[in-house]
């Protein structure tokens, strides 16, 4: 992802600087070596130092530290990514779900302990035998996600192993939420938000839903679906109500209606494919969103399919 963005910015004639322990092979630009071996403090200090010398900046980081690092960029230069407040709201899946739901956007129902077991119901009336997703309130992709089935004639016991088998997976607390497992096709929408919203691609997420886990296996960019316009409209509305800017990825399950599962306020894995199949430099579009005007549309010149195992190879190829 670093190579994709840095090389695209460089292709547009921009000077690129990024923090790292050393120069990364195949990544355009100048490295700014972190203090203290690029631990959290050293990385943040390097970002602040770089941002003060640049006209604009964008942060690539996990959700749990993205807001704090984005705030550093906001205080030092033009932020080409989401505002830090929006990042915090998107990263907290409970807060994000409530904001979207309050705005009339369908999301998987959030369940509390009383809503599970003993024939408990979720937002759509699901009861005994329904499946639920337990996931961290903050996290990326399918990391830390477990699935449980409401088959007990009692509410969920976060400390019990028998029946739920939760104690070895997660410790249910304020750091986790439980939502309904909605059925449908797993898609994502990629767009760039500036003064206007620029639709990039709808993508297929190759997701494997097992007995007790959800596994992300790769994707197809773009993915032709008759619901393309509907998916893009839903994604744009979600990004708008959350105050997002820059490159956004919205995860959607297309079932009886479109359910927004996650809003990613940052470049996502799909950008690796998007950069290969659109007729614009992705870096130029991100800069135009922050500093100017976006085009009305982009052209799509091909299709790119990848597996999770291929991602390392894709990075290597993009670095050549």
Strand order of the largest sheet: 13-12-9-10-11-14
Question: What is the helical fraction, as a range of percent?
Answer: 25-40%
Looking at the overall shape, the CATH architecture of the largest domain is 2-Layer Sandwich
What do we call the CATH topology of the largest domain? D-amino Acid Aminotransferase, Chain A, domain 1
Describe the largest sheet.
6 strands, antiparallel
How far apart are the first and last residues' alpha carbons, in Å? 14 Å
- In total, the number of strands is 14
How much of the polypeptide forms β-strand, as a percent range?
A: 15-25%
Order of helices and strands: HEEHEHEHHEEEEEEEHEEHHEH
- As a whole number of angstroms, the C-alpha radius of gyration is 20 Å
State the secondary-structure class. Answer: alpha+beta
The level 1 CATH classification of the largest domain is Alpha Beta
Polypeptide structure, described:
The protein is α+β, with helices and mostly antiparallel strands and 320 residues long. Mean pLDDT is 85; it is low at 116-125 and 151-171. The strands form four sheets. A six-stranded antiparallel beta sheet has the order 13-12-9-10-11-14, with helices on both faces. Strands 5-8-6-7 form a four-stranded antiparallel beta sheet, covered by helices on one side. It has a two-stranded parallel sheet with strand order 1-2. 28% of the residues lie in helices and 25% in strands.
